Amino acid sequence: MNGYVGRIDILYAPTDATIQSAFPMLIRTANELGIPVFNCDEGTVSEGALFSVGFNYADLGRISADMAIEILVKGESPPEMPIRQTDTYQLFYNSAQFDRYGLPLPNAWKTQGVEVAR
C-alpha cells in the first residue's frame, strides 16, 4: 500500500475471504497511513472501517431458512429454485473513525444509519 500513499483518498476493501482474514492488519496499516477504508459489511465497520452499505445477514439467514424449508419439507428441487437475495440494505458507520479522520458525519446518517461501536 505504501506505493499508493498520497495517491488515494479512501480505500474500498471488497468482501472477499483474503481481505476479510487480513482486515485487522489492513485497518491498522490504513489508520497509520491516514487512509480511511469502507466496505459493504457491518462487521468490518466494528473492526474500523469508516462505513458500509450492505445487506443484513439476519435477513439473508431468513431467506436461506425459507429455502431450506421448501427443500426439506415441501420437496422442492434445489436446481429448479430461483436464486434469492435480500433487497434490504443498511448503512452502518463508525463515528470514532469519522473523528479520527476529522470528517463530518452527515446528519442524515445519524437517523438513517446504524452506528457501530468499535
Give your account of this protein's structure:
The model has no long low-confidence stretch (mean pLDDT 90). This protein has 118 residues and is of the alpha/beta class. The protein has a five-stranded mixed sheet. The chain is built from six helices and five strands, in the order βααβαβαβααβ. Helix content is 42%, strand content 14%. It has a domain of 82 residues: Rossmann fold (3-Layer(aba) Sandwich), CATH 3.40.50.2300.
Mean pLDDT equals: 90
Radius of gyration: 18 Å
In whole angstroms, the N-to-C terminal distance is 24 Å
Number of strands: 5
Envelope shape: elongated
Uncertain stretches: none
* CATH classification, class level of the domain at 2-55 and 88-115: Alpha Beta
Superfamily at the CATH H level of the domain at 2-55 and 88-115?
Answer: Response regulator
Content-based structural category? alpha/beta
Strand content: 5-15%
Percent of residues in helices: 40-55%
